[in-house]
Specification:
By secondary structure, the chain is mostly helical. It contains 19 helices and no strands.
């Protein structure tokens, strides 16, 4: 009750940010459903499709710091509305594709640029600014959890339309869903009227963008977190891009991949809420390391044996719990270290590393499959680097812990 009372003035902003995030992430995570029919129909290879997804991740990652800086100059609302319109345009172009160029431009460049303006870094920055510091970590977990519900909606809808009417109809269905991002972005943009709190002495205040970048990369905690973030992107995008193809190769029902992506989205809600709550009480960097290690172990256990519907859905549940829990932890750590004014830009700098990993996960997975005819080498690499990143992150967190955040008192 105390939390709800605290959040009541910010609810329109938080709901708008959550809806925008859930659609941008849910639709993007479900694009792998269309890989097999699309590539057969227009005559491109699996690796060419995954190259488009890899370009999407690079565009998203490298434009994210600029989108964050633009929110400081122009405000959140115009940036988010522009991003929503780019998403719609990208899906429409992809739905009309007859060759690689349209897929690369629509799924790659346009949706990638849109995600820089509508996905986690921007939505988390909106949520962080809209609420008091005492409830920030929990709220970031709530918004991150709400942001995962899109996969529960988009994956089954896309698969049904894909099976009954074809992949073009499925993508047009995604266009209809994406239209709701525009009003959501408008409501979330009300955060522009919320004044910034006064930064503490060890946080960034009214400095230039260049100074903010220099101070971020001069902070060892931030650098280690950013490097480990690479593995997060590699593992997650490998799964969303290649799991539908892997299940089809193994002779599984095509609907299973949509069901699994939906399970990932559902359990992601629980994971985001838990890690948002946990980040308000324990070391965020150590929690990140624990996520990377556990996720790698789950990935290895699943791919070591032939998949069944049961093991696939259980895999989706475990991975979903560990999926976007990194979001509130990274966003909270950046806010603690550097304050709110440049949070979106600095979080975007870390996200560039994540998206380089996403490029490797999407394109590298497709390249390995086309070369070796199997995903075995790809998942083994993902497990090995994930374990290494998690161990290094935890070790550094124990040596250089961040300051403990305040906790909401309900008494």
């Amino acid at each position: 009750m105390a939390l709800l009372k605290t959040l009541r003035p910010s609810l329109p902003i938080l709901i708008g940010a959550s809806v925008m995030l859930t659609l941008s992430m849910g639709l993007r995570q479900s694009l792998g459903i269309f890989m097999q029919p699309l590539t057969r129909d227009i005559g491109i290879s699996i690796s060419e499709f995954t190259l488009a997804i890899a370009v999407q991740n690079l565009a998203w990652g490298f434009l994210q710091p600029f989108a964050g800086a633009w929110t400081v100059r122009f405000g959140f609302r115009p940036v988010m509305i522009l991003g929503s319109m780019l998403y719609i345009a990208g899906l429409m172009l992809m739905a009309q594709a007859h060759g690689l160029l349209a897929v690369m431009t629509g799924a790659g460049v346009l949706i990638g640029a849109s995600l820089a303006c509508t996905a986690a870094a921007i939505a988390m920055s909106v949520a962080a600014r809209a609420v008091p510091e005492t409830v920030r970590s929990s709220v970031l977990g709530i918004v991150s959890g709400a942001g995962s519900l899109g996969a529960l909606l988009s994956a089954p809808i896309g698969q049904v339309l894909n099976q009954d009417l074809g992949w073009r109809a499925g993508l047009l269905g995604f266009v209809v869903l994406a239209l709701a991002m525009v009003p959501a972005a408008w409501f979330a943009g009300k955060v522009d009227a919320v004044p910034l709190p006064k930064p503490s002495t060890d946080q960034l205040g009214n400095v230039t963008a260049g100074t903010a970048v220099s101070m971020a990369f001069g902070n060892a905690c931030f650098v280690v977190m950013t490097c480990a973030y690479f593995v997060c992107g590699m593992q997650l995008v490998f799964i969303t891009t290649h799991l539908p193809s892997y299940l089809a190769i193994c002779g599984m029902d095509p609907m299973l991949s949509a069901q699994t992506l939906g399970v990932i989205g559902g359990f992601n809600v629980l994971g985001s809420l838990f890690f948002g709550w946990a980040g308000g009480r324990w070391n965020k960097l150590a929690l990140l390391g624990g996520i990377y290690i556990t996720r790698s172990l789950v990935l290895g256990c699943y791919f070591m044996v032939p998949p069944t519907p049961t093991t696939t859905l259980v895999f989706g549940a475990f991975m979903g719990f560990l999926w976007l829990g990194v979001g509130p932890l990274v966003a909270g750590a950046v806010a603690e270290l550097f304050g709110l004014q440049w949070q979106a830009m600095i979080q975007g700098l870390a996200f560039m590393s994540h998206q380089l990993g996403s490029f490797v996960g999407a394109y590298g997975g497709g390249l390995i499959y086309d070369t070796l005819g199997s995903y075995a080498m790809a998942w083994r690499i993902g497990v090995a680097v994930g374990l290494a990143a998690g161990i290094i992150q935890i070790a550094f967190a124990l040596i250089r812990p961040t300051a403990a955040p305040p906790v909401l008192r309900t008494a």
